[in-house]
């Protein structure tokens, strides 16, 4: 039986594409093991999927000053030593990395033992962790046509993002029943990522009374971001995080408001859900979400409202326009060719094991 190590962590976006690959890998009889951080979000998600999990020390390599910059390199070195031991004992045929700083020691340890590695880069421009890992990779998969120019020509493969198969099997009525909402009024799903988004949460709640005149709202607001004062508001439900029922909530939604993390928007594309993207501002990030959103907007998949332009009126108007033009967005999304990411990536994995 062929063996594979999956790695990646820090946010759910670094884990869900790995989860999406599991059914295809199991079908091809791969023995799967996961390496992540000791207590990151990936640990709960992977163990919940029944995959053997190994935790290693993890540190962040920052481009800015922080006192942790003095201690985190030692955490990375410890993680590298731990990854070396795991790989030596497990003897995988291939490693697949979804990124995040926990993946860096794993990819470097795989290189030490000459284990082929495939990397997936979600954003248009590679993040620092993947930049460190790319020289050690056999192939680098990506979501956007623009990304290819940032990668070595002999390694870049435009695959799109692996989408969890079960996400495509949601049932609208089940979603409405889970949220205790009516089938007679349109539904807005607000989802800010696994960590939530304070600015998006605040903006939506500030116009909630106006929205509820015509819509119902399902609000996935992130851990510790529930608003107790809104509990019991007719037509409005809020959750910190949703796992298995999420497919049904997507099916129940007529339109979606989301940040512009690459995996999230690729899921919206696969689901053909008309969506409004509010990318994380350049002041609070390296600007990757802005680039992601602009790419999808250019391709006609997304409506975009940048955070700097976010006001009560601009958000309300953007939602109204999106709902009015939702069929146009659906038709455009139906024409995309990036629908076979799982099949393409597993083929690359197979090619590595055959050569190894």
SS content category: alpha/beta
Write down the overall mean pLDDT. 91
The major β-sheet equals: 7 strands, parallel
What's the alpha carbon Rg, rounded to whole Å?
Answer: 20 Å
User: How many alpha or pi helices?
Assistant: 14
Protein described:
By secondary structure, the chain is α/β, with parallel strands linked by helices. It has helices at about 15-25, 40-50, 70-90, 105-110, 130-135, 170-180, 200-205, 210, 245-250, 260-270, 290-300, 310-325, 325-335, 340-355, and strands spanning about 5, 30-35, 55, 95, 115-120, 140, 155-160, 185-190, 215-220, 235-240, 255-260, 275, 305. The strands form two sheets. The protein has a seven-stranded parallel beta sheet with strand order 3-2-1-4-5-6-7, with helices on both faces. A six-stranded parallel beta sheet has the order 10-9-8-11-12-13, sandwiched between helices. It is globular and about 60 Å long.
